[in-house]
Amino acid sequence: MTEVPGFLLELGLRADADERAVRRAYAVQLKQIDQAAQPLQFQQLREAYEAALHWARQARDVQGAEAAQAPPSPSSPPEAVVEAAPEPAPPPTPAEPRADPVRDILVALDTQLQQEPLRSAPEATALLEHTLEDPRLLDMDARFLFEANIAHLLACGWRPGHEHLFEAALVFFDWRTDSARLLRLGQAGQVVDRAIVEQDAQGQQAPLARDSQLEYLELLRRTARPEPRMLALGLRPVMHAAAHYPTWLRLTSNTANIEAWNERNADLTCTNPKAPVYDDSVSTSQMVTWFVAFCGVVLLIVLLKAAPSGQPASPTEQAAQRAGAAAVQDLLRNARARQSSQPLPAAQAEASDTPAIPAPQRPSIEPDPPAARYTSAPRPIYPAMSKRLGEQGTVTLKVRADAQGAVSDAVVLQGSGYARLDNAAIDAVREARVVPRKGTDGRSVGAWYKASIQFTLNDTDRPPGTATPPAPRRSYGDRVTAAVRPNIAFSNDVPGNPAVEYTLALRPDGRIMDTRLSKASGVPEWDAAALRAILRTDRMPLTDDGTVPSSMVLVLRPKLQ
User: Which of 525, 528, 448, 535 is nearest to 487 (CA)?
Assistant: First the structure.
């Protein structure tokens, strides 16, 4: 792993660059940007410059502290001057590299990831939590550099276990919901942000296609030579992912195996033409078969319309109708088999080249079904991409439930205006259970019902159709406590309820610049847990007038009073 953070790479600098080199590189890059026409590029360059300048100053301070701690050479008493032949000067000893705790931690972490690749996202989350508990990372600047290097490690490309590290970092650093935080990490942060957007887009596919694609991407990470059948079924979704989600695929999968899959597919085609291989082209025989089948269906429709309605059909016409109906049924079965990517039965092997025709339209349903009442209410999942884009609205559905109350079908009557929200509403009602309607004989029967699913930002858990009660106004101290307490992880049982006080230095936007222990509680474990909670909060809420004090004293206790 390269030890150069992403913001230094964006300026074209090495890890040992000083302040002068940072300013010179910034001036060169600034001349290539039109600040009025390219405000985003200028903002990114400015953020990389400030981060690099802080990096250089931190390295200078560490070097100065080491020089100050070196013991001075003892002064010797004056001696008589004795002229002697000058001795040759000893060769200069090479300077020891300055200590960099963040770099040492990252090198140790990278070595551990290479020797023992991560096997799950919870394991990756536990590793990040354990690493950030290191006392050398309690400083806010050190934590920022650690986060930036994790983003740079992911942006450099996939290695075994990176797919789990990617998922853990999204949750641990809150990258999925705070894209601005990623953009502050320079070019590596932009790469990770694009990967998150592409991952959200992949998750918006139909559930069957999405899950199938994820399975074949897992196979892509494991082997470069899959079995012929798995290759025939999996190469198409893998190539689809490579075309539509290239950045996410590069960070979470072994893209080097894609070329090996294509070469193996070509070899199987040459050595065994009958082997099941991936082929996206349409052969001439298939086109001819489709055209003949289409003409046959059209001719059958014409004959049925031309037959008199009041006279029975002749035996020849009846045989033709039966043959035509059988042909249509074969076409439908073949079309369904292709859509589900399953092999056809042996009896239909000869008709595998027949074309897929559209499925028949759904029968009409009653115009005004009653509102659905639930024994198990739908629990809609707000799509992450919709949250990022600010999409919200109400989806009105007609759902079909059987006699047991299980939902078997759903139709969108009035959409929200966003396909992602409409699909999420359909998925939610399919998992719900409805109170079934009673028939004339008192038994439960299947019927259609009307259901509404509401998506509102910052209010996703509110049941549909209910108003949000006005929240009581909280004091500024309550808002600060509400921001910090969810980040406290402390389960030890301590006597009493000791209080620890920390003095915080805040920026105008609420970000924490410095944290100092002003009064200990007498329980070191609680003091450390409170400090970790403050560092995870990262930003304090603003007051009612949109400002924040430059400093505050925060008092925390293990138990709420």
Answer: 535
